[in-house]
UniProtKB/TrEMBL annotation:
Transmembrane feature ranges: none
Organism: Nitrospirillum iridis
ANK repeats: 431-463
Superkingdom per UniProt: Bacteria
UniProt keyword annotations, A-Z: ANK repeat, Repeat
PROSITE patterns: ANK_REP_REGION, ANK_REPEAT
Keyword Repeat in record: yes
Protein name (database record): Ankyrin repeat protein
């Protein structure tokens, strides 16, 4: 399209009451068709919104221009507006309640833990946007008022009906105090009102220890405030003050789930100090050293503090290990997961600083079998011992453990020693998870490079999850590793998830039918888009240009566009839907 002087910027068009997103999509297609046919007026209209755009526009660019024409910054913003218009008030309220809190993988509908949407700031942003557009939501009931952090609204509702403080929402079974503790919204009112609302609820009789449900009693308000966990959930912005308020009003400071969650994060003792000190004020530190609750190993753990010591050793947290030992943990204890003495776990993992701490606190140097000594030699970088034991016991070179230790420590030099001694670059565990899979998990690029140079199979599939090293890297968020492996891989599904457009194009030129091939039954490539919107659009565009079928339905009866939209990939979904109509 030749450049045309843009006309003056017009006032935004007003969306008619009967406008629909499908109608707007059709308008964008007609506009694109007019420009493709040489319509100068259509071209000038486009350039009003994209001055200087010289290349032939694509449909998504025309959609973007149409959004700007209506006063929206992006097509996605316009689509959100249309979706919002189509929702009932009840649907908006449910969406606000759903998106406004950390849910730790628990589906609010079924109230069961599983593969639910990950917690993150994007969820709270959705809830905040709806509250801003529809302030009446905050006045719809106690739970919505809590989410909006409307102090006056909460006070008014409780004055009228004090029993609301105990109300368990029909939507997810949560109490108002729980919702306040787990809420994560980008609202100024959070900093201003959260603690005042918490005090108001507690004054009215809210139970500071009431959990989500009888199935998840340990997910208390204190756990929500502290945050942390397997998803790295954010703490409350006023976590310390909120925690003290809850404890002062009767919450049990021995918050087992919070202790577990924080054990997975940084090597930091802040919450250990705070919760222990509060337990000490009550004379209840014996709960830390007594029988462990379910969140900290249950009956199989010697005690809560013993469980936490095992986690500190496994995660190479010397500060936490020192703290736990100083507060009653046994340096001679057993790790909950491996059932090995923690000192052995430290030595086999190469955690020398923790091993020294344990020995200083009375751990007994373990008698290692020669096979364990071989792995410990990798951890210690003791090449002479490696050579001696490998010569005496060649079978040690057929175990994944020593290579996994070198990988976890990102020691390509030690991995090279093992390979030189005769270890296969495809050494694997009992589920055929190979060394390259382990390197992908750890982001150990130099080890991966070495393994590939020494002949490792790049696209081997493990027997447990059916994944290649590339798909493992993508799943674990190791983006640099995924980019490295993509340059060597021919795993088409994995390349799609990695967003490796150039590599995908090369393979499609070589074999165009890959665009519709099902590497997994019922899952052609259009169902394997990356999580990042821009990359997802680029991959979808490439696949469609090679004939990928946008109408295919997977075993859940979802089209590629429906599957993409469920993942929040709205621009990619729009692109795929546009292809259905040609």
């Amino acid at each position: 399209m030749s450049p045309v002087s843009p006309s003056r910027i017009l006032s935004p068009r007003t969306l008619s009451p009967g406008a629909t997103i499908d109608g707007l999509r059709r308008e964008a297609k007609r506009w694109l068709k007019a420009m493709t046919g040489g319509d100068a007026q259509a071209a000038r209209r486009f350039l009003t919104h994209f001055p200087g755009h010289a290349a032939p526009p694509k449909l998504r660019e025309v959609q973007h221009a149409l959004a700007r024409e209506h006063g929206f910054p992006t097509w996605a913003a316009l689509r959100q507006e249309m979706e919002d218009r189509a929702r009932t008030t009840a649907e908006r309220i449910r969406l606000v309640l759903e998106k406004s809190v950390n849910r730790y993988g628990t589906d609010p509908g079924t109230r069961k833990w599983g593969d639910y949407e990950r917690d993150g700031p994007g969820r709270g942003a959705v809830a905040a946007r709806l509250l801003a557009r529809h302030p009446e939501i905050a006045r719809s009931g106690i739970h919505a008022a809590i989410v909006a952090h409307d102090l006056d609204g909460v006070r008014h509702l409780l004055d009228k009906e004090p029993g609301l403080v105990h109300d368990r929402s029909d939507f997810d079974g949560w109490t108002p105090l729980l919702r306040l503790a787990y809420a994560r919204l980008p609202l100024a009112a959070v900093e201003r009102n959260a603690l005042a609302i918490a005090a108001l609820l507690l004054d009215a009789g809210a139970d500071p220890d009431a959990g989500w449900s009888s199935e998840a009693p340990e997910f208390t308000p204190l756990v929500g405030v502290i945050g942390g966990g397997e998803g790295g959930q954010a703490p409350h912005p006023q976590a310390e003050a909120f925690a003290h308020l809850l404890i002062d009003r009767g919450a049990n400071p021995f918050a087992a789930q919070a202790l577990y969650n924080t054990s997975l994060g940084a090597d930091d003792t802040f919450w250990l100090d705070l919760l222990w000190d509060e337990s000490a004020k009550r004379g209840e530190t014996s709960t830390w050293t007594g029988p462990a609750p379910n969140a900290l190993g249950g009956a199989r753990a010697a005690s809560a503090i013993a469980y936490l010591l095992g986690n500190a050793v496994s995660n190479n947290h010397p500060r936490r290990a020192e703290w736990l030992l100083a507060h009653g943990a046994d340096a001679r204890g057993i790790d909950f997961y491996s059932r090995q003495p923690v000192i052995k776990l430290a030595l086999l993992g190469g955690h020398q600083a923790i091993a020294e701490v344990l020995l200083r606190h009375g751990a007994i140097p373990p008698a290692l079998t020669e096979e364990e000594a071989f792995t410990a030699a990798v951890a210690a970088g003791d090449v002479a011992t490696l050579r001696r034991l490998a010569q005496a016991h060649p079978a040690f070179l057929r175990r994944i453990g020593p290579m996994a230790t070198a990988i976890r420590r990102h020691r390509a030099d030690l991995a090279e020693v093992l390979l030189d001694l005769g270890m296969s670059p495809d050494v694997a565990d009992d589920h055929d998870c190979r060394a390259l899979h382990f390197a992908a998990h750890a982001g150990a690029i130099e080890v991966a490079r070495l393994l590939i140079q020494r002949g490792a199979e790049v696209d081997a599939f493990d027997g447990r999850y059916g994944g290649s090293p590339l798909t493992h890297a993508v799943y674990h968020g190791e983006t640099e590793m995924a980019a490295f492996l993509a340059g060597h891989s021919r795993n088409f599904r994995g390349l799609c998830f990695a967003g490796a457009v150039d590599r995908l194009r090369a393979l499609l030129i070589e074999e165009p039918n890959r665009a519709n091939r099902q590497d997994r039954p019922g899952e052609p490539a259009l169902f394997c888009l990356p999580d990042e919107e821009d990359k997802a659009v680029a991959v979808a565009e490439l696949l469609l240009s090679f004939g990928a079928d946008p109408t295919f339905r997977n075993p859940l009866d979802h089209t590629p566009a429906e599957a993409a939209r469920r993942r929040g990939l709205d621009e990619a979904a729009d692109l795929i839907e546009a292809a259905v109509d040609g």
